């Protein structure tokens, strides 16, 4: 029930953030927006999200993971309901920015809840199952939103989207009740048994003095950047460069999504049932990513079998490691700093997500070659592999 609660809660975060990109072609025509104005709504969300991922994690450490997650879900509900009534460019832009702000604490809170309810032998498997909601969110929004929009308009599509956080709030409220076996610690226990409450700034200072935290931040910067860079450009590459149809490209990306979901669950199970350290498995899974990017970039024109195999393999390479790295982001943290540490690392993840598409665009403009652009990005996971080799899980979490 707990796992279902956080899965549903984080799923709606992806549904609400992806809702605008789904309805944008119709909405911008009726609102008389330019394509650039419509695209700025996507950017506004991620700017707001990047601003609050760290303070959101710090607040989760201070007030509790369950409270912050429920607050994020409620924030999604309020903003999506308000967007139904937007009329001008600026009010919609402000609402998208606010949606990013209220969504900031969600990942840190969810990962914190996993550490409260699952021990070290089950935690990575739970994280792998939890991670599947990111891929599933893209599927859900594309199942209902286009149909609702065609028959009832884009405002109705946003209204239906607002029902998801409403349902998630009620479900998570009951699913996350109870006393976890490994409850969150709100202070540092001294040798004399006294528990000392630390300020949020003190927690942050300790977090950034941790070598493993910085190594995971570097991993996130390069690996997450490569993941979303190649993912966001895949359809464009297949259609514009390889000359496949839009339908074929969509089929290939469906295979990509299926293999990514399966690989995330398998990665968690392997990590939980192996004597090897998590950072070793993360490095192994990360190393798979580079050859899969190369394989995809070298797809011959018209070779469907190669295309489908390459996109499926790249789905494994792009997402398999994320189960373990998400797990490590809370396992390297002291017991009272899990939200702060995961929020700090997530800042670098978001920066990588911003910069990678920009870099790909600059490389394409400079070289005129999609293949060369992908080959450069293929180096990023190798940098992340080196960083992962310097990560060490905390002794406290190993002994849970």
Task: List key phrases describing it.
membrane, disordered C terminus, mainly alpha, MFS, Major facilitator superfamily protein, transport, 400 residues, OPA_Antiporter
Task: Describe the protein.
The chain is mostly helical and 400 residues long. The chain folds into 2 domains: 2-178, Up-down Bundle (Growth Hormone, Chain: A); 200-398, Growth Hormone, Chain: A. 81% of the residues lie in helices and 1% in strands. Helix 1 (2-31) runs antiparallel to helix 2, helix 1 (2-31) runs antiparallel to helix 4 (89-103) and helix 11 (278-297) runs antiparallel to helix 15. It is globular and about 70 Å long. Residues 395-400 have low confidence and may be disordered.
Overall geometry: globular
CATH topology of the largest domain: Growth Hormone, Chain: A
- The mean pLDDT is 86
CATH homologous superfamily (4th level) name of the largest domain = MFS general substrate transporter like domains
Topology as H/E string? HHHHHHHEEHHHHHHHHH
Distance between the termini: 21 Å
CATH class of the largest domain: Mainly Alpha
Helicity, in percent?
over 70%
Structural class: mainly alpha
**Tally of helical segments:** 16
Largest sheet descriptor: 2 strands, antiparallel
How much of the residues is beta strand, in percent? under 5%
Radius of gyration: 21 Å
Second CATH tier, the architecture of the largest domain:
Up-down Bundle
Strand ordering within the main sheet = 1-2
User: Number of folding domains?
Assistant: 2
Low-pLDDT residue spans: 395-400
């Amino acid at each position: 029930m707990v796992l279902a609660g956080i899965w549903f809660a984080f799923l709606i975060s992806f549904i609400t953030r992806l809702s605008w990109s789904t309805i944008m072609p119709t909405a911008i025509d009726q609102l008389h927006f330019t394509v650039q104005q419509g695209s700025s709504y996507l950017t506004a969300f991620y700017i707001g999200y990047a601003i609050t991922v760290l303070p959101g994690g710090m607040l989760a450490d201070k007030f509790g993971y369950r409270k912050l997650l429920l607050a994020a879900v409620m924030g999604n509900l309020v903003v999506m309901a308000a967007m139904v009534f937007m009329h001008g460019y600026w009010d919609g832009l402000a609402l998208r920015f606010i949606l990013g702000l209220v969504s900031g604490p969600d990942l840190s809170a969810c990962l914190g809840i996993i550490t409260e309810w699952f021990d070290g032998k089950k935690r990575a498997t739970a994280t792998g199952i939890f991670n599947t909601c990111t891929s599933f969110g893209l599927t859900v929004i594309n199942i209902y939103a286009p149909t609702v929009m065609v028959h009832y308009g884009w405002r109705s599509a946003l209204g239906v989207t607002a029902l998801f956080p409403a349902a998630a709030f009620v479900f998570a409220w009951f699913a996350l009740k109870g006393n976890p076996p490994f409850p969150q610690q709100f202070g540092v226990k001294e040798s004399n048994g006294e528990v000392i409450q630390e300020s949020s700034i003190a927690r942050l200072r300790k977090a950034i003095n941790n070598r493993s935290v910085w190594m995971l931040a570097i991993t996130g910067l390069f690996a997450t950047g490569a993941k979303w860079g190649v993912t966001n450009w895949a359809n464009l590459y297949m259609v514009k460069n390889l000359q496949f149809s839009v339908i074929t490209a969509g089929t290939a990306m469906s295979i990509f999504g299926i293999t990514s979901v399966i690989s995330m669950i398998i990665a968690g199970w392997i990590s939980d049932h192996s004597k090897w350290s998590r950072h070793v498995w993360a490095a192994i899974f990360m190393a798979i990513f580079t050859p899969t990017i190369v394989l995809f970039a070298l797809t011959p024109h018209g070779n469907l079998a190669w295309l489908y195999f390459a996109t499926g393999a790249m789905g494994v390479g792009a997402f398999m490691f994320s189960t373990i790295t998400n797990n490590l982001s809370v396992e390297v943290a002291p017991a009272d700093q899990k939200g702060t540490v995961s929020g700090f690392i997530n800042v670098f993840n978001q920066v990588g997500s911003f910069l990678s598409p920009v870099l790909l665009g600059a490389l394409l403009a400079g070289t005129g070659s999609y293949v060369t652009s992908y080959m450069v990005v293929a180096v990023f996971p190798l940098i992340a592999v080196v960083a992962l080799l310097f990560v060490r899980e905390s002794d406290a979490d190993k002994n849970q």
